[in-house]
Structure formats: C-alpha cells, structure tokens
Amino acid sequence: MNYFLRSFLTVSTAWFSLFAGEGMFPVTTVGKLNLAAKGLKLSPEQVFSMDSVSLAHTVVRLNGCTGSFVSDQGLILTNYHCAFSAVQAATSVQNDYMKNGFLAKSLGEEFPVRGQTALILEIVRDVSTEALKLTTTDMDPQARQKTIQTNTKTILENAKKEMPGKQIEISEMLTGISYYLFVFQSLRDVRLVYAPPRSIGKFGGEDDNWAWPRHTGDFAFLRAYVSPDGNSAEYNTANIPYHPKKHLAINYQGVQENDFIMILGYPGRTFRHRSASFLAYEQKRMPMITDIFDFEIDLLNKIGAKDRGRAIKLSDRIENWSNVTKNYKGKLKGFRALDIIDKKHDEEERLAEFISADTSRRLRYGNILKDIESIYDARSLDLAREIPFDRMYTSVILNRIATVILDAAAQMRDKPTEQSAIAAKVYEAIEADLKKYDAEADQAVCRELFSRMMRLPREKSITGLDKLINPGQLPASLDKVVSKLFSKSKLSDSLFVKALLNKPADKILTDNDIFLELARTLLTTRDQVRATRSKADAELNRLYALLTEVRREFLKKDFVPDANFTMRVTYGTIKGYAPADAIYYKPQTTFSGVVEKTKSGEFWETPPKLIALWKGGLLGRYRLPNTNDVPVAMLYDPDTTGGNSGSPVVNAYGQLIGLNFDRTFEATINDFAWDERYSRSIGVDVRYILWVMQYFSEAKNLLSEMKIPTD
User: Fold this and answer.
1) pLDDT (tens digit, 9 = 90+) per residue, 643-662?
2) Can you say how many angstroms the Cα of residue 440 is from the centroid of all Cα atoms in its chain?
3) Can you tell me the distance from the alpha carbon of 710 to that of 67, in angstroms, rounded to the nearest whole number?
4) Which residue in 196, 231, 528, 695 is deepest, having the highest Cβ count within 10 Å?
5) Start-to-end Cα distance in the chain
6) Whether the Cβ atoms of residue 591 and residue 692 lie closer than 8 Å to each other
C-alpha cells in the first residue's frame, strides 16, 4: 500500500465534540459522527474511504466552489454563480448567453473554461509532526514560521516525487498545531455545458441574495475532460470526457420537512476559533471594504447601462463585489444583533481567570490574549491606508498588469532558462485581465483610490505618491496624473505586452511605460505592507497555537477545525426558522412565488415560456403532491459557508436531492459563530433543475445522460 495511503488510516479523529447541527467536519472524521443515529442509511465507508469508492469521489473542488459528478461522462453539476465567469466569457452581444442561456447539444459545442480545474480528493495524511519538527511555541515567531515553511516545503517535494502529476497541498487545520497533506487528481480541461438564462440562474439579483424566501435557479453544468490515454491534460479538441469512479444518483421524489440531509464540499474560511479582538478588528474592516465596493459597484453599473457589450464585460466584477458587500452587511448586522463580540469577551474573561489560577499556566499563557489584541489594534490603525492600497492591485487592472510584469521580470532574471515559460504563463493571465478591462472604469477607480490615499496623515502616506500628485494642488493635480497614466500607458495593448514580455528581463524591469513606473513607485509600500503582515501573521500563528492549547484544557474539549477549503461533511434536516418575533418561514418555495415576484428588470423578468409551462400545467413528474406547482428552493440547518456553493445536498441514501448555493441573511454571521436559531442554508431543489432542463431548455441530451426519464 502507498505510504501516504497507509498514513491516512491513522488520521486523528480527536478534533471535535459533537454539537447538534454545528460542524463542518473534516471528511476523515465521518466515522466518529454516528450519523446512523441521525438518519443516514449509508456506512461511514460509503461516505468516505480511500480504500474503496465512496461518495467523496463524486465531489470536486472547483475554483472557490464545489461541484459533483452526475454522470459517468464527467458531467459536473454546480451553481450558476460558480460558472458565471464561463458564461460571461462565452457571451457576446451577438450570442448573449447571459440573457438567453447556454446549451451544448453535443460535446463539440461545449465551451472551454480557461483556468478552471476540477480537483478530486485521493489521499489525506496528518503531517503535523513533520511540519512542526524543530519548532516550539516559545521560539522567535518568525523563525518558527520559517521552520514550518521549510518543513512543509520538504514534505511537498517528497510527496511530488512519489506521486508525479498529482496536485498536492498542505493545509493548516488548527492554527500552529495541526497540518494535513491532501493529494488530488487535477482535471485541467473543463468546459461549460449548460446554464439557464440569468433571469433564472440569478433570479432576484442582489435584492434576493442572502435572503429567504428564495426563488433562484442557481445551477449550471460543466464537464471534465482528459487526454485520450486518460491522463489530465490542458484543453485539446482530441480530449475525451473523464470517467469518474462514481457519480451521484439523482432522486426526484422530493424531501419533507425534518428529513435527514447531508452535504459534502469544500467550504472556504471560517473564524470561529479567533479572539474577541479579531472580531472587533473585522467589525472595523468590513464597513471600510463595503464603502469602496459600493462606490465601484455603482460606477460599473452606470458604465454598463450605456452599452450592453460593456455591461457583459463588467458583469463578473459587479457580481463578485455585490456578493461580498451584502455578505459583509449581513455579518455586521449579526455582530450588532447577537452580541457575538461580548460573548467572546465573556468567555475570554473566564479563560483569563482560569489561566491566573495556576502558576504554570500563568507562565505559559499569561499574556496571550493581550498580545493578540495588540496585534489587531495595530492592524486597525493601518486599515485606512492598506484597504485602498490593496484595491490598487485588485480593481485597477493596468496597475495589476504592471505589477505582474515586474514580478515576472524579476523571476526571469533569477531563472533565465525559464523565461519563455514564465512569459507564456504571465501573458495568458494578462490576456484574461485585458478582456475585462474598461478604460473608463479603471480610470475612475484609480482616481478614487488615489484620492483616499492622498488624504492619509503624513505618517501613513504612500511612499512616492506625493511626488506624483501635488498635495497642495488637489484635485487638479490628481486629475492630471490619472489622465496622463491612462492616456500614455500601452499596457492595455496585448500586442505591446506580448512584445515586452519577450524582451530580456533587465529591459522589462527598466521599461519606461508610465504604469510600470507607477508600479515601481508603489513597490516600496507593497514590500513594507507585506513584511508587516508577515511578521504579525507569524506571531499570531504562535499565539493562536497557545490559545487553542489552553482553551482545550479550559473547556475540556477539542474543536472542529475552521473551514479552510478542505473537504468537509455536514448534516442536518430540512428545516424552517423564525428570524424575528411572529415570523416563521417554511422550508420550501414554489414556482408560484417566482410568478409573484416577476416584474421588469434584468433579474426579475422570468422567461414567458417558463411561466406559460407552469400555467399550462406541464409539470411532469416534478409536480408537488396535491398541488399544481413545482418546488424551487429549500431551507435546511447543516453548517455551511462560502465554498460550499455548488455542494451536493444528498438524502439519507446518498442520492442528490438539491444543490447548495446560499445562506440566509442572518446566517452570514456563520463564519464567526453558529446558532441553531438562525443558521440556515439554501439550496435549489433538484426537481426545479430537472423541470427547467426538460421543459424550458429541452436539454434531453443531458437528461438522458443522467438517466432521467423524459417520457
């Protein structure tokens, strides 16, 4: 047996104590959850096993989302919003797939999704001992962090030698304490197969986002391909569909309130084991982020209103930032309504008393809470500087391109034999950026960020910015500099960029393009910010390891590791909730609610054909019993977060009954705390997916592939 596979058998399961409902449990611990007592009809090995085929083999990690195989031909079901960038890339004014939907009637019509991968988990191993070798929690934090980085690099290199061609990662499960190695099969040729019109896939837009009742058909299909010999390969017309070890069976018989369900997927980041001072820091940071995002969203919407082509180009950015903004506003509401920070403070006060009661504990843990607080206090003071500065690299595309070029040139200089490969990879990324570039948007955002940075106090100023912009002649000097940047730079010209990347590294590093000059000016501040964060992160890594250690002793329990894009399993029931006095929400919505909400507007104009099908009673086997309606969305209490978008919702027999895509507004606070009263997630009922496919889109080829009868 493979060494890494043998090691999997000794995976630690002492991570958690069982709470009712709460827990995005590492999939390796499923055998300890006693799910049979909760209603699961499968054995733990049928859910997860590295020795035999299990449900875990049906689940794939996509870029920031989850998907699942639903046919033996590599067909992947995921959310519409997870596939939206692919829909956007395929869309043009002439072929408006965003508005009209996309359906490939044959394999040859499927659209390649550049940069998308589908990862299938193969091996898991606890490497904590090797990762922490030669470290202690009382050594210099940066030396400790560097030792851990050196150790994990060695582990990765050894694993890659033993298993060439695999994607191998090491994830920190408990900060500074436990590290796990994950081995994936990586499928690099992924194609768009089907997406409904945006008025179905994003029905309700941002008004309905993070909300219940919900009527959104948030689903789409991708397909994974491999080379003819079965190996992972980049896109090639000769590639063939991937044949998964297992795919999910689809159950369209429906679910009832209180039915057992289970979700497998790759949830993103949660922060439930962080300190009260971290939560206070987040309460300051999030409004500052949403303030900038609101400005950018409003700007891009106004630009898009002028021209459909520009609206298509900008839609992905608007969608992403709108999603984050509403999520943050929900979290901020949760902070205020649920007293989460005060509750965390209360726990920490009791913890401090516990530490003070024992001499050895005082010596080891006496100052950790104050030390953690001092780091976040310092970070809070830098927010007004760092947030607009960071946005220069995410929202100003030409500045990002300039910085990527300079970083690539530095790599080329250090590795001259790899220049061609580096240039090709960087150009591909820049080319993708330029497809989303809008000069008016870039220029307006750049001006706003410069304006914010120029208002900083002198001690927080951005190095070199005052040499470009005269502080005494605002706003005229600011307008002049921004106008000059965008009128003189050639970085929006892909041919210029391609020619530049083929020059010797030293020539690239000294090129006089005006945006490259700006990027060089900003590098001093960027390196300073990185160094400050690195030092603070190293210290927090050490302190949180100590905090977890003493909290375990104090609370007499272990903890479910925070979500970190590793495979997790969560379970619960179909369940409504009461978010406020005298209000109770049922756990299922129907198409009649879609009709009630339909009105003018991009996200509210339900296709007339779909309404006609419903009015005509053409509901087929997807009709709700004793009604003339079709189910749309469902509500449930398993613990989820971002990254669980696209996760399969399965019944007690492991059959697909829905597709997770969101949480309620109250449950956005889940990332910091979970509570049975308000923590609810939202999924598309599989019956709605199949009804739309069969009767509206007439996707009989896909239904046949999934073995869904259409007669």
Assistant:
1) 999 999 999 999 999 999 99
2) 28
3) 24
4) 196
5) 48
6) no
